[in-house]
Structure formats: structure tokens, C-alpha cells
Amino acid sequence: MVMNKGFLALFLFFFVHILSQKTKTGFEEIRSRYENLRKNDLNALPDVREYIKKAKRESVAEQLVQGYRDAVFFSPKEYDKLIYSDSMIYVAFRSRDNDLISLAYLGKGIIYYFNFKKFKPALDEYLKAFEYSKNTKDEYLRHKVIYHMAVVKSYLGYYKDAAEQFQQCLTFFEGQSNQELHPNEIFNNTRGYFNSLHQMVVCQRNLKNFSAADSLVNIGLSKLATMDDFALERSYLLKCKGISNYYNQNYEGAIPLLRQSLPQLIKADDFYWTSVVYFYLGKSLYDTNKEEALSNFEKVDSIFSEHHFIVPEVRENYELLIKHYRKNRNLNKELYYTDQLLAVDSLINKDFTFLSSRIHGEYDTKSLLEKKEYLEKTSSRTLYLVILLLFLSILFLFLYVRHRKNEKLILAKYKILQQKLNTQTENRHDVILVETRSSNIKSHDLSEEILQNLAEFEENKEFTKAGLSMSDLAERIGTNTTYLSTYFNDTKGMSFKHYLNTLRINYITHLLNNDKKYLYYTIQALADKCGISTRQSFTTLFYEVNGIRPKDFIRKRLEELQEKKEIQ
Question: Where are the transmembrane segments (predicted)?
């Protein structure tokens, strides 16, 4: 008997171990299908969703957070990345794992920084990540948080504080990259080392420690000479060396290095450093090839116009353009770049209070406004055209922002409804069969009989009959309207009308979600299908029950199926 118990315990141990290994292998197998794809590759998303569904089904928080991180990485749309990052934070909080919470906040901060260049909200997220990583044993995570906080500090002009934090990261990542670790860990730590080195160079240059900056660049490029996997990091250092040559008035040496750094920066969509390279290329070419110099200056403006983002370091770009076009008596372009410089200063004054008093140079706001007034008086027809274009631009921007905001809201409501539908499908609850209040009805047997008859009524989809009244239902289940009304109010907490409408809308919603043919029905046809008399009533009830209009749900469902390539 004792031997049998020992055998059983041993059997259970190996069974649990094998099951655990199988689960782990399952997640690894799914990730292996997409983990080597490029960033923002839509082809990865179907497998990512499968990974997320598996993690949800098995309630594994660590894998679910990983799934949402992968969704962030492979989703090409910036706002989708934010939505997935919010899901990542929600799951992390439910796990009560501080490391996961820190990682989730860090991920959202990186999106604000890299995809939107919104440094203040990025810093807010990094500070939260730092708070949850204080007691972590994961030193890689802790230094990754410190690194990203330091990046924002450097951008805001706190170069001394940022340099101290980058030095911590530099020391840590260099030490870890020389340890006997998994190849992926060595790669991540090596990349962390070179990124920290680059940021240290930026800080030292802005602190006027030029010899220290040059020394760090040479160290980095020397190490990268034998490495093929860090093309972007090499471009950052080539950019730094080109800028150093510019400040040493070695323009012939600066130009090829700056040009050489551009392809990888553009490929990575790093418009922060791309704009800096264009600026220094323009300055290096200004005396020898003014046309190409102006072309590079105009590319800086294109980045500002597209992303509403500017690096304070390149503000002089607009002063040079204004001087050039004033000298050449091109009033239209002088006015345009004056307006742009005002917009740049407005942005800088709003987001960079620490820097604003140090970057105004020759063109302070007062003188710019005086020159703007003079230019407008000398060319009134140009002014009217500018005003018209500005008005149209603002109108277009307003309509565009409103459209994007509405689309974001519709997408959020659609995803909430999808979660609800998935839950209902898994639990087989298509309608509200549970009693929600304690019943005041005296006959328990009669109440149970009504409940059973209602279940048959719902199962047979008899609620889809048009014009169905409470009298019809009372007769169908063998009771009277007074008793049935009392039953609905006492047991379900709703009126008969509310009950019937909810049944019908839940029914048609499941058809739309699970059978593609119904997505091509008209609203009136869908209303007829579930027993609702008019399309207006159907639309109103669909929105009340689901929180989204039927036409928006249908549109989003079609987009989702097209993305999954389930329809053409």
C-alpha cells in the first residue's frame, strides 16, 4: 500500500512536469513562426493573436504580457500599439507581479517616445516603471528603465543628470555582454551598451566635453567594426562623428559620414536623428553647394510639418532659411518660414521650459512678430492666400482629428464587444438566462416552470417573430401577463420589452460575428431577421445593447476578416 502511494506521487510529479513542458513548448512553437519577422510586419499578427488567445485560455500572465508586447512590436499602426500596451498594463496589474507591471509601463513609455516623440507622457510612464522596478532582482529590466528615463532627460536638456544615468547603463550592459549568457541576452545587452554609448556622446557634446565625446565615438566604432548585427547603432555613431567634424570645421570629412548614417536612420523611421543629420548636412554644404544645403534644410521642415516635432538643436535651420530668402527677396518663402519658426518656438516654449530661455538667439518672439507684420503689409494678396490656406488647413486638421478620434472610440468599443462575444461563446451564454434578483413570487414550482418554458422559447428562437407581445408569450408558456410581468421584474430585473430587445440584439450580433453572409445584409434585412419592425428601431436598440452602431460593427468586422485574409 505504501509502495502504491509512492508510485502514484511519482507518477503525478512526472505528469505535471510533462504537462508544463508541453505548455511551454506550445508557446515557443507559436512564437517561432513570427519572432524573426521584421518590426511592424502585419503577417505576424494572426500568430500573435493565437499566442494571446492561448495565454488567455491558460491564464498565464507572463505569456499574455509577452503576447501583447509582440502585438505592439508587429502592429504598424501607432494607436494600435497604444491599445495593446494598455492591455499589457491591465494584465500585468492583475498578475500583481511588479516586474511585469514595470515592463508594461516601460513598453508604453517607449511607444510615446519612439513612435510619437511625446517625451513628457513617455517620462510619466518611465517614472511609473521605475517605481515598480525599485526592488526588482532583474537588473536588465532596472537598467533598461534607467536608460529610457535618461533619454527623455537628455532631450529636455538635463545633460549632466542624463550622463550620470547613461554611465550606469554603460557599465552594466558592457559587463553583461561579456558574460556567458543565452545568445539573445548577449545581443540585448550588447545593443544596450552601444545605445548607452551613443547617448553618452550626445550628452558630452552638449556639455562641451568634445574630447570625451570623440573618444567614446572611436571606442564604439572600433568595436562595431567586427559586428554585423548593429547597423543602426553604427549609424548613430557615424552621425556623431560627422557632427564632431562639422564643429572642427572639417566639412569635407563631415559630409560623407552624415550621408552614410542616413539610410539606417530613415529605415528605422527615427525622424529625431534624421532631422539632426539633415540640419548638419545643410550647414556643412552651405558655403559650397547652397542648393543642396537648402534642400536639406527643407527636409528638416518637412519632418516638422509631418510629425509636429522639432529638436531644439535644429531651430537655427529656420533662421538660415529666413535669411536666405530675405536676401533673395522671396517674400512668400520668407513669410512661410517665419510662420514655421513661430510654430517651432511655440512648441518649444510649451514643451521645453528648461531650454526655452537658452535657444532664442537672434529671432525672439517679439522681433519675429514685427517682421511678420511688415511682410504681411508688403504683400496683402499673399496674406489673404495664406489666411485662406491656414483656415482650410485648420478645418482639414479638425475634421481629420475628429475622424481619428471617432475611429479610435469605435475600435475600442468594437474590441470590448468582441471580448464579450468571445466570453459568451466560451461559456455558451447567448442570452440572459440567470436570475438576477430574489423572487417575490409565491409558487416556486410555477417560477421554475416559467424559467424552463422561457429557456425553450429562447432555444427555439421564437423571439424573432415580428410583433410578439407579452400576451403572446404568456399564452405560449401557460401563464398570464400580470404574473409574467411580475416575474421579469422580480427575477431578471427588467421589463418584458427590455428582455425581448436584448434577446433579439444578442441573437443578431452573434450571427453577424460568426456568419460572414450576414455582414452583407441591409440594416432592414437584419431587423427583419430578428423580429424588429424598423431599421431605426434596430439601430437604436443595437447601440443601447452593444454600445456601437450596427454599421460600425459590420465595418470593423469586415476589416478584421480582411486583415485575417478570411475574405477578399
Answer: 382-401
Can you tell me the distance from the alpha carbon of 266 to that of 466, in angstroms, rounded to the nearest whole number? Answer: 60
Establish if 28 belongs to a structural domain. no
255 is a domain residue: no
Tell me, yes or no, whether 430 and 386 share the same domain: no
- Asked, for residue 357, whether it belongs to a domain, the answer is yes
Per-chain mean pLDDT for the chain: 85
* pLDDT value at 279 more than 90: yes
Quick one: which of 249, 245, 246, 149 has its CA closest to 199? 149
What is the C-alpha to C-alpha distance for residues 463 and 501, in angstroms, rounded to an integer? 9
Between vectors from CA 227 to CA 221 and to CA 231, what angle results, nearest 5°? 70
pTM of full prediction above 0.90: no
Among 372, 390, 408, the domain-final residue is 390
Burial tier of 382 (Cβ tally within 10 Å: 0-12, 13-18, 19+): middle
3-state secondary structure 412-456: HHHHHHHHHHHHHHHHCCCCCCCCCCCCCCCCHHHHHHHHHHHHH
Same domain, 442 and 513: yes
Q: In this structure, what C-alpha cell is assigned to residue 251? A: 566639412
CB-count burial class (<10 Å; 0-12, 13-18, 19+) for 500: buried
* Contact (Cβ atoms closer than 8 angstroms) between residue 245 and residue 256: no
Residue 548 structural domain:
426-563
Q: Determine how many CB atoms are found less than 10 A away from the CB of residue 61.
A: 16
* Interval 489-505: pLDDT, tens: 887 888 999 999 999 99
What residue spans of 329-364 are helical by DSSP H? 331-351, 353-356
Number of domains in the chain: 2
- Does a structural domain hold residue 41? no
For residue 219 the three cell numbers come to 571606442
